[in-house]
């Protein structure tokens, strides 16, 4: 009997137990999990203060009809169960239409298939169909999928054909605030966790470049991000890389298209700008570095702005302490946003 559940089935049952509001439902789930651990019927019956016949019945219901049969049958019998074809139709529907509550899904299934599910039963069905409850992701509304694909193709071609001394850098700016913001975290129930914050809205202006081949990261702190900030970044990169061509992947900010910058580049023939398609932050790998930084630096408090700036720059100077985390995060496996 031991280990008859798959790893995914264990996760689904554990999630169902966590969300269960009824003791009887929780007992049914615990029965299956304990059987999976190899505990005998008598011991499980003693733990849950049930009889062995009930334990065996729960086991049979689960093996016959899965978690839906285990939990739904006691409310609505087999009437609540969808056929396999209907489950596939529901899956396709939910991939196209996002409902904010389980009650809405219950109503949709009732209207479409005349099958009555409880909220709890539908929750377990959704888990079994591989749906999870999570926040939607905001993407630019004007994204052009074809241009994104063309950029990726051009990038991979450049990567394959460039010289051994040539390097590609992903360039962008970020603006961390000298002010802690509230964030989500696991906090003991009934307690409040407070974080110190400053009253001002002063922020840093960091201009950065990331080379994936050797994980070289160049960060400059600027008063503002403009054409002259880009010039300083280019000069710094050229100093670090004395030979070979330099390819900078940049967004379409006005300073990256300025006449002054292009005039500057005529005196720096080794450096070339490669523009991202509009509304494509997903293709700029350095965005992942900024997100990683914010995840590590969200709750540090600094009384003075200079202390804050020093700490931020030290973070990037010592970034290689996070190599294990970054080697899977900072890769050129691009995500293409849907059109």
Q: How far is it from the N-terminal to the C-terminal residue, by CA?
A: 49 Å
| Biggest β-sheet strands, sense, barrel | 5 strands, mixed
Mean pLDDT: 84
Can you tell me the overall shape?
Answer: elongated
CATH topology of the largest domain: Nucleotidyltransferase, domain 5
> How many strand units?
5
CA-atom Rg in angstroms: 28 Å
Q: How many structural domains are formed by the residues?
A: 2
Based on the coordinates given, report the CATH architecture of the largest domain: 2-Layer Sandwich
Number of helices: 13
Poorly predicted sequence stretches spanning 5 or more consecutive residues: 73-79
Per CATH, the superfamily of the largest domain is Ribonuclease H-like superfamily/Ribonuclease H
Per CATH, the class of the largest domain reads Alpha Beta
**Topology as a string of helices (H) and strands (E):** HHHHHHHHEEEHEHEHHH
User: What is the structural class?
Assistant: alpha/beta
Q: For the largest beta sheet, what order do the strands appear in spatially?
A: 3-2-1-4-5
Give the structure's gist in a few sentences:
With 339 residues, this protein is of the alpha/beta class.
Which structural traits does this protein have?
339 residues; alpha/beta; Nucleotidyltransferase, domain 5; 2 domains; 5-stranded mixed β-sheet; 13 helices
